[in-house]
Amino acid sequence: MSVPLVQVNNLHIQFCDNEGLATTVVNNISFNVPRGQITALIGESGSGKSVTALSFLQLLPKQATINGEILLSEDDVTTTNLLTLPAKAMQQLRGNKVAMIFQEPMTALNPVYTCGIQVMEAIIQHKKLSKAAAKKAVIDLFTLVELPEPEQLFKKYPYQISGGQKQRVMIAMAMSCGPALLIADEPTTALDVRVQKNILLLIKKLQHTHQLSVLFITHDLTLVAAIAENVVVLYKGNVVEQGATKNVLQQPQHAYTKALLLCKPSPAQKGFTLPTVAHLMHQTLVPIPIATAPVIESNPILSIKNVTIQYPVKKNIFGKPTQLFTAVNKVSFDVYKNEIIGIVGESGCGKTTLGNAILGLQPLTEGSITLNQQVISNATAAQMKQVRSQMQMVFQDPYGSLNPRISIGDAIMEPMVVHQKFGSKKQQQQATLQLLAQVNMPASTIHKFPHQLSGGQRQRICIARALAVEPSFLVFDESVAALDVSVQAQVLNLINELKASHSFTAIFISHDLAVVQYLCNRVMVMQQGVIVETGKVNDVFFNPQHAYTKELLAALPNHEKW
Questions:
Q1: Calpha distance 190→172 (Å, rounded)
Q2: How far apart are CA 121 and CA 169, in angstroms?
Q3: How far, in whole angstroms, is CA 498 from its chain's centroid?
Q4: Of 8, 124, 515, 529, which has the fewest CB atoms closer than 10 Å, so is most exposed?
């Protein structure tokens, strides 16, 4: 029997704060990554998944104290302890033998270099190819991961492409040198189901053809069932269960694993509060009906009329656009008071652009947007300030939307100060603590900074900040994509509570069809800037009419593998 590619033995990681107080985040864990197989590392946000992965490449901050072994087998005889490898040797290993797809592509990509140059850099560094050969290799990789117009995208900067496209650039970069081990940290979080399926198929293909080993970090158990041969379950820094995927998911032994399996929204749970890990660990599952939401009114609170948004692709020497890209094409719809309407579609279809336009963050080429019978698409800065006290947005990238120099408490209180909410600073601090409790974050978080939190925790902070001015209308842009299933359940329950108690109205942009079906009243399917299908959620999902909607539903991971 061959030696596993990676053996993790008694890995123990602590972080020390400024006062020297140590906090254990990974507690003497041990597991293997077999050769040529995909091993899933699952658990809630903050369970230690990403910290474990970063330790493979010595990417943890200096405040970390690491003990144990991570043994990489060159063959069945020679092994290398990645924790003790010298800096120069580690530099040669990173991206070459061991590559990583990071969770947040916007912060992992350099904003001052084009996407193509950044992938070329890794190829030239490790493969010693000429620039021409490296460029061809990059374009081939971009084609492989289904990036549109690879030659054009080679010249684009990260800010010029969508979140899902940035993630695919990261995947291309990770695969550029043919690593033996690929660490994928939530690699499909920002991707729609169709592209997600293609990426998973790509990873499986590379695994089989190159005997690639993959450590697949995720909170989506549906993906684990679809892709992984083995699974390791982390809970509060401890391995509580591990084994073959089929055995663990079909016959879980630990209460925590059982709880994770029950937190994912399903059609049967619509109308009921979603269970969370905290409840399931301590009591029997009893479905609780959602509090009756206010009746959806017949008068629209938001009206979108013939909205078109175009970007210049090429300009002449005088700066006049000679070629335009239409991101949103003559879109019209109404949102009625007390309803949540979902917008689904593949990355780059115009969902986020439309959401930004509603908030006044993106100018319109044509059309109008009306909120509470007031046209806001041509509002002045002073008028938009008043509008934003009624309407807020939860952005897709939690790290990019938080100021790294401002504490979490100040970030949440900032909109309260701008819009003069809750009176004195003491009252604002109290309101901030209440918001942190609502999104299941401890009071001590008020003094922390964004870099001290996990990806899922940062997303919860962004939701709390959006709620800080008590808006009547919210735009959620992939706001639960980065959350594990338990925290996702908490946030969805919170949204339902707000909908019931505060006459809540929202647009919910997402690629997670299960979440949209659970949460929303109506759904719109968007393709290439056009709404191709709209209707009540169950009507669209159970009886789709448009070919593209059928394609999206067909791309969902196969639940039969459970």
A1: 15
A2: 13
A3: 23
A4: 124
Which residues are 8's β-sheet partners? 31, 70
pLDDT tens digit sequence for 268-279: 788 888 887 777
* Sole residue written with tokens 């009507």: 539
Q: What's the chain's length in residues?
A: 562
The whole-number pLDDT of residue 501 equals 74
Question: Residue 532 in contact with residue 549, Cβ under 8 Å?
Answer: yes
Element (H, E) at 64: strand 64-73
Using CB atoms within 10 Å of the CB of residue 558, give its burial: 0 to 12 exposed, 13 to 18 middle, 19+ buried. exposed
For 192, 326, 524, 548, the CA distances from 527, given in Å and listed in that order, are 12, 12, 10, 8
Map residue 378 onto helix, strand or coil: coil
Q: Compute the distance between CA of residue 50 and CA of residue 318 in angstroms, rounded to an integer.
A: 49
Cβ-contact 119, 173 below 8 angstroms: yes
pLDDT digits (tens, 9 = 90+) for 262-307: 888 877 788 888 887 777 777 666 667 776 666 787 889 999 999 9
* pLDDT digits 0-9 by tens, 166-193: 888 988 888 888 888 999 988 776 677 7
User: Which tokens go with 544?
Assistant: 């789709």
Tell me the chain's radius of gyration from C-alpha atoms: 24
DSSP track, 459-524? HHHHHHHHTTT--SEEEEESTTTTS-HHHHHHHHHHHHHHHHHTT-EEEEE-S-HHHHHHH-SEEE
What digits encode the pLDDT tens for the residues 336-393? 988 999 999 887 789 989 999 998 888 999 999 999 888 888 888 888 888 888 888 9
Instruction: Lay out the sheet containing 98-101: strands in order across.
Output: 98-101, 181-185, 213-218, 38-42, 230-235, 238-244
